[in-house]
Amino acid sequence: MQNETNDARKDLKSFSFSKIDTYNQCAFKYMLHYFEDDKIFAANIALELGTLIHGTEEEIANCIKDGKPINYKALKNNIVLKVYELEHKYPAEFKEPDKTGHTYREKIDVYLDSGIYRLEKYLKEHPELEVVATEQKFKIMYHNHQFTGSIDRVLKNKITGEYICHDIKTWPEPHKPEELTTPLQFVVYTLAMKELYGIVNEEVKCAYDLPFCDLIQEAGTKGYMTRGTKKLDKLFEGIENKNWEPNPSALCHWCPYCPTNKNQPRGAENRCPYFCHYTKQDNKNWEKENEWQGIENHQKVLEHWLKNKTK
Hints:
By secondary structure, the chain is of the alpha/beta class. It is built from 11 helices and 6 strands.
């Protein structure tokens, strides 16, 4: 029992942004994935392609930072080979149009044709900017919690001395304006950059780099740090109070614990009876499988759900 208590306390003190964001999305998923130490991972084409593009952009930025030539031919060849593997690993998803009507093949072809040159072009158009770091690792304390992680790209304005934080996202379309006011990820990254680079001002210029949208989208309106740290405090309070109430939404379709996930990993089955029935194919069904009745009634709800499933 003492070991379980120590593990729980350790869990409350060590965080990445993805970990705190999991709680922000769904507290019940957080409980299953972190508090119960499941660590179940569901592979998907979006995540694997995102990793590939991130690696490519990192290589390009490092070459620019170090004054080395960029071997675009080798980078493109690597993408073509990896995409061939993804096409055969996820055949249905690869051919399925996203919300903008484009398939992965179409987006990748555009990236290979022009998107891969975006960063070099952007920096030529903004000679006042320089790349100072890629995958900038950090470890900072926030109250009694430790945040660790890495920032995709850090730029610096050579004239003003201002630092700029870039996060690369392979989204099919940009965020809506109302989603950019208080980006929690940049709140964490700003805390890290202030410590890493000795930044005195409360806020840092932040932007999403969106290769598939051909856009660098600024994020964080005035006061985002004040609003964001209040949000962090509220999330940590929920975790410490063990508030595990689920938040069924369209995101359930990609959750490893949701039975509508076509790539649900082994070990994640029959764990969550609160999922939303939304799928990419049937986006009108927002029905929840079960209502939350508190953690004290969870086992009863789960057993009732499993019993009805087998009938």
